Amino acid sequence: DKEELKQLVNDKTESKDGVHVELAANIGTPNDLEGVINNGAEGIGLYRTEFLYMGRDSMPTEEEQYEAYKRVLSEMKDKRVVVRTLDIGGDKELPYLNLPHEMNPFLGYRAIRLCLDQQDIFRTQLRALLRASTEGHLSIMFPMIATINEFREAKAILEEEKAKLKDEKVKVADDIEVGIMVEIPSTAAMADIFAKEVDFFSIGTNDLIQYTMAADRMSERVSYLYQPYNPAILRLVKQVIDASHKEGKWTGMCGEMAGDTTAIPLLLGLGLDEFSMSATSILKARRQIKNLNKVEMTKLAEQALNCATQEEVIELVNQVR
Ligand code: PEP
Ligand code: MG
Fold first, then answer.
1. Tens of pLDDT along 95-128?
2. ∠ CA(127), CA(273), CA(47), 5° rounding?
3. ipTM for the complex shown
4. What residues have their beta carbon closer than 5 A to ion ligand 2?
5. What contacts 23, CB < 8 A, 6 or more positions away?
6. Contact 80, 274 (CB under 8 A)
7. Is 216 annotated as a binding residue?
8. Phi-psi region for residue 279, left (φ > 0), alpha (ψ -120 to 50) or beta?
9. DSSP E strands: which ranges in 52-189?
10. I want to staple 122 with a disulfide (CB 3.0 to 4.6 A). Which of 77, 115, 149, 190 is the partner?
11. Does 307 qualify as catalytic in the annotation?
C-alpha cells in the first residue's frame, strides 16, 4: 500500500473524468517542509504562523519572521504558499501579550481582531512577509474575518506597508493574492459580497463547524454536535464555493474536513478547488480523487444538500466509497 501510494508523488490530482484539483499541505513551521515535499503537495494551503510566536517569552522580530517566511517560500519554489497572518487567542495563548481573561475565548479577542487593534504586531508581520515575497509564490490570508470592514482595514494596512517598503526601495512581489479564511458563519452568509473584493477563500471548517453548530470544538460533552457532514455545513460550503466561482475566484479548504475521506467525494462534487491537509494525508486523498468521477460526485453532493441529517449524508457517501 505504501509503495503504491509513493508512485503518486509526482502526479497531478485529477478526478477520473479529468477535472484537476489542487492538493496542498498545512504546515506550522519551516521544519514541516520535508514532509510536504516527500508527500507530493502541490503547494501550501495553510501556514499557521502563530507557532513562530509561541513557546517563547517575547515577540519574534521582523528579521526572525523574514528568515522563516523566506525559507518556506524559497523551498517551495514556484508553488503557491498561503501564509495566514497571526491567529492567536481562542485555544492558543501568548503569555507575554498579557491578554485579559475572557469568559468565551473562542468568541473573544483573537486573530484579526487583535491584529487590527495592536497594529504594531500586525505591521511587523506584514513587513516580514512582503520582504520575503520575492523568494517564491506568496499568498496572504487573514484569519477570523467576520465583516467586510475587517477585510478592508486589514488590506489597507497591507497596502500601506507595501507602499512604505517601495519608498525604502525594497523589492516586493506585485502579484500577491490576498484572501480570507471563511470560518465564521456571517462571512459564509456574505460570501457573494466578499467574493468581489478578495482574491480567494479558504474555508476553515474546524472553526466554521463550531460556530455554526454553537458547539465548542474542545468540549467532549457536546462533541456529538460537531458534525462536518451536517447538511447545514455543506450548504455553507456550497454557498462559499459558488460565490467565489461567480467572480472568477477560487475556494480552498484548510480545516480537517479537507483531508477526510468521507468528506472528499462531497467536496469534489461541490466544486472545491483546493484541498489543504496534513502532509501525511495527501497521497491517500490523491488516490481517492483519481478514482472518483466529478460529474457523479456533483449529483451526490446535490442529494447530500437535501438530506435531513448527518447520518443520512454518511450513508449516501458510503455507497460510493
Ligand atoms: C480552521 O479553523 O479550520 C483552521 C484551519 O484554523 P485553525 O484550526 O488553526 O483554527
Ligand atoms: Mg480557525
1. 899 888 899 999 999 999 999 999 999 999 999 9
2. 30
3. 0.99
4. 183, 204, 207
5. 13, 40, 41, 42, 274, 275, 276, 277, 282, 285, 286, 289
6. no
7. no
8. alpha
9. 80-84, 137-142, 177-182
10. 115
11. no
Judge whether residue 91 has pLDDT over 80: no
Written as nine digits, the cell of 185 is 458563519
Q: Beta strand pairing status for 44-48 and 22-27?
A: parallel
The mean pLDDT value of the chain amounts to 96
Instruction: Measure CA 108 to chain center.
Output: 21
Q: Answer yes or no: are the C-beta atoms of 27 and 80 closer than 8 Å.
A: no
Partners of 83 in beta bridges: 47, 140
CA dist 147 and 166 (Å) reads 29
pTM for the model: 0.97
Residue 70's φ and ψ, nearest 5 degrees, are -60, -40
321 is known to lie in a ligand binding site: no
Cα–Cα distances (Å) from 57 to 53, 60, 65, 97, 253, in that order, read 9, 9, 15, 9, 32
Q: Please count the other Cβ atoms lying within 10 Å of the Cβ belonging to residue 315.
A: 11
Residues in contact with ligand 1 (CB, 6 Å cut-off): 46, 48, 87, 183, 204-207, 254-255
Mean of pLDDT values over 138-153: 98
